[in-house]
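the two lines:
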Amino acid sequence: MSCISHETLARFAAGDMEAADASDVEAHIRTCAECRKRLEAIRKADTVLCLLKRAEPSAQALLNTRRLISEEIRAPQAPEIMTLDDVAEFLRIGPGELEEIAEELPAFELAGEIRVSRAKLLDWIEHRERQYLRQTIESRAARISRTAFQRGA
Amino acid sequence: MDTISDDELIAMYRTGDADAFDVLFDRHNRSVCNFALYMLSDRGRAEDILQETFLAVARTAKRYEPKGCFRTWLMRIVRNRCLNSQEAERVRRDALADAAASAAERAAADPTPEQCAHARELSDRLGRCIADLPDRQREAIVLFAFEKMSYQQIAETLDLPVNTVKTLIHRARGGLARALENDEEITA
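prediction for all of em together
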């Protein structure tokens, strides 16, 4: 039997192997110094893996995040179901600007009135954030490519 | 509050108890930061992800189904945000064709062996080896080693079959052992 791969030995060390296969590996290890060394290295790596400590966020990052979260969760919440005036206030835009985006809003009609669910509005904002991020990345990449090209030329 | 489960805390937060959310933050901020750090190899970006993730959790807590897997749900959010961030970074790097600068940055960030005691040094080395693993193996081994997640939980977090997760982890452990062996041969 030729030498056993690190992956198979790792499987063996974790006990994640059929009994017959494990017996083959055991028999091979008894006669192969190279594979014994490999298995030892795997066990050593496993031991160190168990001892690894998580990286901690910096004190500043924790402070900033706590402050932002506190602002978010302790601020007065908009109602679950919002009128268009609530939406404009929530989005911090005027009625004219709201009209411009009215068709895109996740709104519904209720007894002849337009209403928006806060949860749907948050989803919609998240979708717009992603769209904006993509556009920003693409335009930034295009700008950098152009600059690099001009520099190269 | 230490004995209250994550699901109970989320339920309390949903009914307006802001302090319950603080407990969730205290409980999980290190896991989030650590996972993001290993995915992105960039502390500044990892800390941005920490912020974004908990704000997202605060805003979307209602979407969470309390089935005892808050951590899995949380880590999925972290992962998605890291993947977005990686994509943004990839586009930036492709455009700049600046791989050499990145390698130099990473080398500069490595601590010198003289600064470390043996156990600490081994952990640092292993940490660097983890950072060099292929993406999927790295994600799986970080959740396995640091978060002590089960194969099943990792499979749910990464959206992969359990057997694939097992293979990734065994491959990663094998790869780490091999990297440590090579390291020792070089430094011997």
